[in-house]
Structure formats: C-alpha cells, structure tokens
Design brief:
Elements (H helix, E strand, L loop, with lengths): L1 H10 L4 H4 L8 H16 L1 H11 L7 H16 L4 H13 L7 H22 L3 H5 L3 H10 L4 H8 L6 E4 L6 H10 L4 E3 L4 E4 L16 E3 L6 H6 L6 E4 L6 H9 L3 E6 L2 H14 L4 E4 L14 E7 L13 H5 L2 H18 L3 E11 L8 H10 L3 E9 L8 E8 L1
Parallel strand pairs: 5-6, 5-8, 6-7, 8-9
Antiparallel strand pairs: 1-3, 1-4, 2-3, 9-11, 10-11
Amino acid sequence: MLAARVLAAVRSGKSLNEALPRLSGEPAAARAAAQDVVYGALRARERGEFLLGRLMARPLAHAETQALLLAALYRLETREDAAPMIVDQAVAAAGALANGAFKGVVNGVLRNFLRQRARLLAELSQDEAAFFQHPAWWLQRLRRAWPKDWEGIVAADNRPPPMSLRVNTRRMSVGDYLEKLQAAGISAQPDGSAGLRLSRPLPVDRLPGFAEGWVSVQDAGAQRAAELLDPLPGARVLDACAAPGGKTAHLLERADVDLLALDIDAARLERIEENLKRLGLAAEVRAADCLAVEEWWDKRPFDAILADVPCSASGVVRRHPDVKSLRRESDIRRFARAQSAILDALWPLLQSGGRLLYATCSVFTEENTGQIDAFLARWANARRVGQEQWLPDDAHDGFYYALLQKA
C-alpha cells in the first residue's frame, strides 16, 4: 500500500522527489521495501501499463488501487516463487483503500495474469514500448542517435544503477580508503582518478568515515566534470547550476579555487552547504538564476565555468525512473532552448583563454553535440577543445561533456 501511494502520485504528474516524502514516518524496513517496489515498477512502467491494458477494460477510478495493481504486477514478474503471498498481500492492501470497494477486482486481475501469463507475455513481446520498457518516442530518438548502441542503452536503463564513491583526496588516498572498505567487509574496485565502485549498493551510514567527510556518493561518469574542467589553484570558478553540489565539492577537493556556486532553487542550496560542511570545504553559495546575470555578477570574469545544465535526464533514468512517466518528447526542445540561453548568458562572463565545461546527463543529440555545434556557429571566439559522450552501462550512467575555450 505504501508503494501504491507513491506510484499514484507519480502517475498524477508528481516527481519522485515530491512523492517519496509520503513514506516519511514509516519504519525504515517498510520504507526501503516500498521504495524498492516503486523504483522497479517505474522502470517497468510501459510493461505494467501494457499488461493492465490487456487485463482490464478500463483503468479503475481509484488512482491508488490502480497503482497498487502496477506494483503487484511488478512483484509477480520478479518474484514468481512468491505469487500466492503477493496476491494475498495486494488484496489485503486493496481492502484498506477506497473502503475495500476494489478488493474483488484486484484479486481477479492478478489471478487472471497468473493464468494468462504465457499468452500475455507473448503479446507483450510484439509491442516495442512494452518490451523495451521505454516510451515509443524515446526509442525512436535512441535508434536515430545510437543505431549500434540503443539496445544496450535501454537494457542499462532498465537495471538498477551501480553505486560509486568519490574519495575526498584532501583527507586520504583512494588506496587508503579501499583498505578501510576491505576492513569493513565491503567489496569495491578502483574506478577513475578518485573513484571506487562498490560490488553492491549499501546505505551510506555503513561507509567508513562518511559522516567525517572521507567519501561521497557520486557516479563515475559525473566525476569526469571536475577532471575535465580542471581549474588551476587560485582560479575564479563558477558552478552555474550547482545543486546538489557533488561536482562543486569535487572541484574544491582537487584544487584551492575561489568558487561561486549558484542554483535557482534556494531549498536545494541547503544540500550544497551540508555537503561542503561534511567534507570540510568552503565556497560562496548563492540562490540566483544564472540567466539573470546582472543580479549576481560582480563584473569580474571567471577563469573557469561549469554549466551543468538542466536536461532530459535520459542518461540517468535508471536513478530517476519517474522520468519515463513524466517526460514528453516536446520537453527535449524546451530543454534545448534553455540550454542555449544558459550558454549564451555565461559565455561573456569567461576570461579570455578561460574554459567552460558544458555538461548534461543526457544521451539525446539535440541536447549534446547538436547544442554545441549550434553554439560554436553563434560564437566565433569559442572552440571545442574536448568532448566526451558516456552511454549508460554497468559501470556508470550516461553523460555528455564539451570543453570550450575562449579565444
């Protein structure tokens, strides 16, 4: 029932960040179990909706009971050995929703699925969106952009993500922290200049020295931002879209720089300040819209700028599976317009010879190479000195980076 409440909120248009607080106040074990079902059901959303479309003439009028069916179908597909228990639990949960009006419907739908499983799955295999668990428009874009890689991308999207760490090298070396993990019985392997990838995810309170700032959770692909921008000690640096602060902190861990971290969402700035305090780092943190330059810029140019722009999140959808439900194809054009405006607003703030790193967590061409090609056509004093496209796989999420230098 807990999972159904969150799923119903997402199906109504809320993000997971807005919906997950509905689990607050619940026991930790129940909260974790519900969250696991929510994430799994959202990753398999197209599959679940297809199956319900075959099992029901029309969706139920009660949103939470309809979401309960999605959650139960996900569990039936992933826990075949526990089918009777799952059906019984779902029917019991339905009894606590809508005054129990749909208990019989829930029981009938789930038992029909078990009886007709083979036929339903055969039909599902003929429906591309349901089979690949992505909206049809999303699959079409991936095919155009990545004709040889698109199936690997969607397969990675449908799996739980890896858990990677970034060692605070101001406190200790990667090798020293790896030894501390091994002493705690935690298996990991080095990944990148400051990274480690865990063999399996675990709560951060089990990580040695997490509260003391020895380490942070950050995907290996995200760690490339600070490595690519690589400002020199003493440089004046702008992180223009900084929250929640992982890339901000990594820049500060690598060098003593004068860093201004901006974000338009004042509430999210608290995350940045909490992270910096835990890690023993300092920066100027300010709530501001990076587009409203005249409201926050002091006219002193920056040596380096990180523009980690808002995007479709198509490279990190396995971490944010609500994106499959909330994103529309028209959003890609909207994001592209916003990205273009941010680039044009920030470029004049860069010192001659300075570098700007454009970053997205997208795999869509319009937000990545297409965006930078158009920017270079607009600005004669800009040149691309580096570019990387990371596609999601078992080791990291999907990211795009373009390193630009001002003539």
